């Protein structure tokens, strides 16, 4: 790693189920890269998911790679993003056109993207629509979300028109330390 590169590594544990995630965030001269490995028991079956999300310096998603291994074998998803156009294997996914952020359904890591990009003042609220990767399906769909900054290191996250709500505690880098009753930093 060069002098300009930064690496942060942390782990999260599931509070409501059997699961762990090892996460790394790297910064170089051109981009931020978030990567991780999730080990999770979902509906009684063990899964392993590995991912990498590459963003530009403004925290705009540029590429996503997800590899999932479960009882039914291995599957992968590769996304590229250019000027708001999201593509899988060169085919645009029009449903998520214009989305800026990816949201990986099984990981608290991607909440960092809008938290860092929006840089909300305490008391401010902002609605966004993320390109949501559902697990274990690895499908892609738009997900309306809202971030409200409650305090210096606390946000209220809601999605799907308020059907899901969780308070997020974050560290000085905008990385989740507590995600409702679902994830906690280990």
Secondary-structure element series: EEEEEEEEEHEEEEEE
What is the count of distinct domains? 1
DSSP summary: helix tally: 1
Instruction: Pick out the low-confidence regions.
Output: none
Main β-sheet, spatial strand arrangement: 8-7-6-5-4-3-2-1-15-14-13-12-11-10-9
Q: How would you name the oligomeric state of the polypeptide chains in this document?
A: single chain
Query: Percent of residues in beta strands?
Result: over 45%
- The geometry reads as globular
Output the structural class: mainly beta
Distance between the termini: 26 Å
Question: Main sheet?
Answer: 15 strands, mixed
How many extended strands?
A: 15
The portion of residues assigned to helices is: under 10%
What Rg do the Cα atoms give?
A: 16 Å
Report the average pLDDT across residues. 95
Q: What does this protein structure show overall?
A:
By secondary structure, the protein is mainly β. The chain has one domain (6-185). 4% of the residues lie in helices and 61% in strands. It contains one helix and 15 strands, in the order βββββββββαββββββ. The chain has a 15-stranded mixed sheet with strand order 8-7-6-5-4-3-2-1-15-14-13-12-11-10-9, covered by helices on one side. Strand 14 (176-179) and strand 15 (183-185) form a beta hairpin.
